[in-house]
């Protein structure tokens, strides 16, 4: 199994931005501020296409609308962080979440590595 997090923001599509760069330049970097509404999804899958339930991390608190779980599978995990990003404490929570799932699936071997998330 391989796991990694991906982040997305609900306000990113509201603003279309253009970046002006020199013609022929191979790499253009534009600094942006963090979005106001960031959510991270921790996804774990393997080469066979098998996936474990996703783990969502919301910024500050859970969304205020009670419908935020509409369409979200019951077995997905969720938590919050100050930034909406993964940190070492949430990585530990995610490992515990995955271990419970693997126990239910009768899987016993699982290796995990922290890719350097700050402790918040």
Structural description of this entry:
The protein has one helix at 88-104, and strands at residues 2-9, 38-45, 51-59, 77-81. With 120 residues, it is an alpha+beta fold. The chain has a domain at 2-8 and 34-104. It has a four-stranded mixed β-sheet with strand order 1-2-3-4, with helices on one face. A hairpin with a 5-residue loop joins strand 2 (38-45) and strand 3 (51-59).
Q: Gist?
A:
This protein is α+β, with helices and mostly antiparallel strands. The protein contains one helix and four strands, in the order ββββα. It has a domain at about 1-10 and about 35-105.
Q: What summary fits the major beta sheet? A: 4 strands, mixed
Instruction: Report the strand count.
Output: 4
Strand content: 25-35%
What percent of the residues sit in helical stretches (DSSP H or I)?
10-25%
Unreliable stretches (pLDDT < 50, length at least 5) are none
The DSSP helix count reads 1
Spatial extent as radius of gyration: 17 Å
Structural class: alpha+beta
Envelope shape: globular
**Mean pLDDT over the residues:** 75
Topology pattern, helix = H, strand = E: EEEEH
The N- and C-terminal alpha carbons lie at a distance of 26 Å
* Strand line-up across the major sheet: 1-2-3-4
How are the SSEs ordered, and which strands pair?
Blueprint: E1 2-9, E2 38-45, E3 51-59, E4 77-81, H1 88-104
Parallel strand pairs: 3-4
Antiparallel strand pairs: 1-2, 2-3
